[in-house]
Amino acid sequence: MRAARIIALIALVLSIPFIASAQNFFIEQDMCVLCHLLGENLGAPNPVIGWNRSVHFRPDSTCTDCHGGNKYFYSQIERGHIGLPDPAGVIAQCAKCHSREAASFSNRPPGEAGKFNCTVTCISCHDHHRVEKAGLEIINQARCGKCHAFDLVEPHKNALADLQERILSIQQRIGGIEDAHLPVESLEMELAVAWSGFADLFHEKRSGEFRETATLQAESLKDLEDRVKEASPRKWNLSGLMVVGFFVTVTLFLIGYQSVAGSIESGKEDTGMAQDNKIKTHQPSGGTSTSEAAKRGRRRRSPWGIRLALLFATIALVLAIQGRFASTHRAVKSVNKTVTRTVVPDLKKANERAMLNSLYELKRISVSLDEIRETSTNEEIKSRIDQLKMDIDELAVKILVHE
Amino acid sequence: MTGSSKDNNDRYSGNGGWFDRHFQWRRFLHDEVTSKSTIKHRSHWDYLRYSGTVALALVIIQAITGLLLLLYYTPDAEMAFGSLTMIRNDIPFGMLFSNIHSINSNLLILTLFVHMFWIMIISAHRGPREPQWYGGVILLLLMLLTGFSGYLLPWSQQSFWACVIGTESVKTIPLLGDSIASLLRGGDSVNGVTLHRFFAFHVTFLPACISIMLWIHLKRVWKTGVIAPPDARTRIDTDCCTGCRKCERVCSFDAVKMTAIDNDEGRIARIDMDVCNACRACIEVCPNQCISLETDYDDHLTEPIFPDNIINRLKAVSATIGLMFFSSFFLHWILMRSKVPADPMITPDKIKPEWYFLASYQVLKELPSERLGLLAILAVVLLVFFLPVIDRSGPRRLKRRPLYLFLVGSGIAAFIYLSIKGLF
């Protein structure tokens, strides 16, 4: 037995690089992994393997974050190792990094876990070690049906699915606007706020509040959809074609006018009715007559103007066809109707959540300021509120740009 | 205002209403525009002679769009980038005006270069047109400085570091380099004060200088008129000439010589065709209008200013503005705007100046030292500025000036080559 343990330990040490999947931060990790990877007293599924496949598997997240202790003195209780956390303290534990989600979930300040009439905690849906990005699929009969009928949950799930579909559609259209090299910073900010609100809605357990918030979000999405529609590249392209077409028309008109006017003027010169010309031109002796010279002048009138105008017209036509094709192509590419696993966009950076939280807070402050402005009759206050809103917008842009 | 005979003088004696009484605009139009003629284009390349008018139209567009942007732009290091983002995103037509202002600036400088090269090719820098040339070179330098100052205003990574490099290279000027760099930057490094200063230069000081120089330039152009094609020459009608010698006195090229008549009863003017530059100064002063232009072609050399010449110029302007709008709507991605605000702590991998500084930037990189590079650039600028002194007389036809054509062509080719090389 002892030999088996020694062999297992050696094998474990040798397999660390493979287990770490080419990431060597295991060396920096506490020694918990060495024992608990093959430990017999932790049950299945093995927590270390689960953690390895979770979104928490990263250098800034360790076992000691939740279980306490010290990576060098791993199992000593006096060094803070708490082992299995108290279920009542789960929300407070998660709130150390996810304060916003914990607050929206419990509807109370983070840390006051267990003071609501539901035993659901973060790990009820997100699991304790194999934490993956949550999607609508976690709302299902097996998970929710443990405590109450799924009929109560299904309308919520449908509402969330509808919102998600709309937000994804908006995201796709904003992508199209960005591909056309048109500005999307404001729209992206609104989109980030929409995603943040959607993620918060996930955690809203009170039915009345859920319905109210979902309705408000649907209305704000309607505004965002209208804004995205306004910013569509098609409108921009059409406006461009009209303006360019106008100048092409003006150029063609001037060329045509000059051709006609030139014919009339040549006629005048033939009859000796030339304008008073301070600079006389001398026709070299033996040269051709005036009328033939005028005719040659007409024949030699430069075709470059017409060629240029034709070129512009051709380019405009090509662009119009391309714009039509592109819009048709986009219409054919319909929004993915299936519920995706992704609740929020592919947020890779660790501080993006904090950014979304900040943006959502700023949005709420902005909405509150709007309400105060509507009810106020004091012009000074209104002006001050306008200034504050401008400051909020600038701050939001800064947050978004700095990511 | 007695209502007497309706001769030409009475027609323009201010009977056309309040504006005409106080400003005599009808007389001005008749004397300066509708009764005059000018040289007209003959070949395709002659459209380049309208590059000056096109440049003027682009300057006006630049001023208008600049004023509109000025309403919303904030020249502060913390807010500049955000204000431009706000203009592009939230202000109606903000994106369009921002694109027009950026693209038009590049198109304007391109047109100015074309204008300058064309003037060099047809040798219109000589004779009575020297002040136009000097003023034009100064105008070009002022426009380049305006472009450089405007490039910093977005306060993006691209513009910030381009300004750092640009102001750093100024330090290589002996004795005064550090002081000039400090004056430009408002300190030792590029910071918020630099933005304020560049904004002040871009919006007040440089436009004021440009306006003054432009006024002088246009006034001189209007006085001397447009130059005739290089193959044009002046001919004097000997039967008409009275020998008053006004043409001899006004000729900058000593092309007019007074020669004795056969019976020695006086002298008449004769033109040395090899030296005459067809500047038309003698045509303007001849009291009997004995002098005319001639060419080897049988085309009409002139056209009335109104409406023919104006329509030709409007055609060129309209086509160019159409091109500018086309670029603003469909090709604005070539601006390659940086979407990252300025960060003095992060140096981008590649920093490139605007295309009109690429050639000089490349010269600085090619030569062993920066000081040598600056000297080379200064030499080229002085050579171009004093071109009327270096090339003051002789035939204008390019076929008879192969060396000049070679030098000018090489200069243009070198500028293009260095710019392309600097880009990569």
Describe the secondary structure blueprint for this structure.
The complex is a heterodimer of chains A (403) and B (424).
Chain A: H1 2-19, H2 32-36, H3 47-52, H4 64-67, H5 90-94, H6 99-106, H7 122-126, H8 141-144, H9 154-179, H10 185-202, H11 207-230, H12 233-270, E1 281-282, H13 290-299, H14 304-332, H15 352-375, H16 379-402
Chain B: H1 8-11, H2 18-23, H3 25-34, E1 37-39, H4 51-70, H5 80-89, H6 94-121, H7 130-152, H8 157-170, H9 177-185, H10 192-224, E2 233-236, H11 246-250, E3 256-260, E4 267-271, H12 281-285, E5 291-294, E6 302-304, H13 305-330, H14 355-366, H15 370-385, H16 387-390, H17 402-423
Antiparallel strand pairs in B: 1-6, 2-5, 3-4
Describe the protein:
The complex is a heterodimer of chains A (403) and B (424). With 403 residues, chain A is mostly helical. Chain A is built from 16 helices and one strand. Chain A is elongated. By secondary structure, chain B is mainly α. Chain B has 17 helices and six strands. A two-stranded antiparallel sheet of chain B has the order 1-6. In chain B, strands 2-5 form a two-stranded antiparallel ribbon. The radius of gyration of chain B is 26 Å and the shape is globular. The chains are: A mainly alpha (403), B mainly alpha (424). At the A-B interface, helix 10, helix 12, strand 1, helix 13 and helix 14 of A face helix 5, strand 5 and helix 13 of B. Strand 1 (281-282) of chain A pairs parallel with strand 5 of chain B, so a sheet runs across the interface.
